[in-house]
Amino acid sequence: MASRLGRARPRQPWQPSRALLVLPVALIVVITVVDLHVPHDVHLGPALVIAPALTPSFAGPRTTAAVGALAVAAQVFLGVTHGGLGTTNHIVQIITLTVLVVLTVLYSALRMRRQAQLARVRTVAEAAQQVLMWPLPERIGAVRIASLYLAAEDEAQIGGDLYAAARCDGGVRVLIGDVRGKGLPAIGEAALLLGAFRESAHRRVPLTELATTLDQSITRYAAELDRPEEEGERFATALLVEIPDHDAVTRMTSCGHPPPLLLLGPGHVVTAPSLHPSPPLGVQYGVEHTLDVFSFTPGDTLLLYTDGVVEARDERGRFYPLADRVARWTGDSPEALMHHLRRDLLAHAGGRLGDDAALIAVHRTTAERRTTAERRRHHG
After folding, report:
1. Contacts of 180 (CB under 8 A, 6+ apart)
2. CB-based contact 87:79 (threshold 8 Å)
3. I need a labelling partner for 299 at 20 to 30 A (CA). Which of 14, 27, 87, 346 fits?
4. What are the average pLDDT values for consecutive 10-residue runs of the chain, which has 380 residues?
């Protein structure tokens, strides 16, 4: 059985361009045949330009040139059939069609070059995302995690929003943040915060001291790079969450960031833990950060998000009602919740966001299940 499968030739995928190529060729044939049967004072030859004009939408310059050559040949054939090529009308039609075909081929070549450039930009953006925003593990400690990132800029895969998760002694620490600005120009501050968090999150320091470390990093970065007229323009909001493995009391520190939503199992209940936020990072040096606590029990899901989510507007200017929308999906897995939110958020915003948006769904499991899973991975 294995040998037969190994020798079997893979099926070739369906190529849309090959199938669509029938359309311009069919147009040339139909226009030519109809022109031969209409009265001599009716000339359909100029309509042949439609065929090469359609081709660049699904094919490259070579195919466009081939279709254009076929259209010119059909025009020459019609000229011979309708009194010869010596008439001024037929000569003008052939020359005009040839010039239009050449312009269409040039347009097709420029279009292909532009597509190649966009592909390279997307490749670089994806590489930057992998370097800066490491994929979050599906399971870490006593939680399952799923994330979603939607960049406002078309060519970008990352921008001013950021998130990360790290294992610490006896628990998990999660960061979500939003630096000033959006898209590619905000990557510098995002990279700085992510690096500072990954370096310090595993240390045995309170969550408030970790927030102070991030605050100091942003302040030093701004002092080194800002010009006098830009003073105070570099800052970031951040939310730090610490989830113990064997304790339902979860700790949280907010630096000007929107409060998370707590989805209480399958009962369609959504609450917002109380926060006492400090100013955003980089705004006020030496500020004291507040530690808030709340109960996060197995079966619940904590939804962290940036303001690009709740500030997304529909065509009437209405903000996205995140709490109301997620109430219908409180019993879903983190992955399913991210899938629903992506589709619903983009539909609300008409397919395009005005700001970067990031979400993290953190689902609390039991410590026993976590320990068993980690033991299997360790010995597997």
Report:
1. 160, 186, 189, 233, 234, 235, 236
2. yes
3. 346
4. 38 55 90 85 83 89 92 89 76 89 92 84 66 83 92 63 90 92 67 89 90 89 60 80 93 95 88 92 85 94 95 93 94 95 95 89 73 44
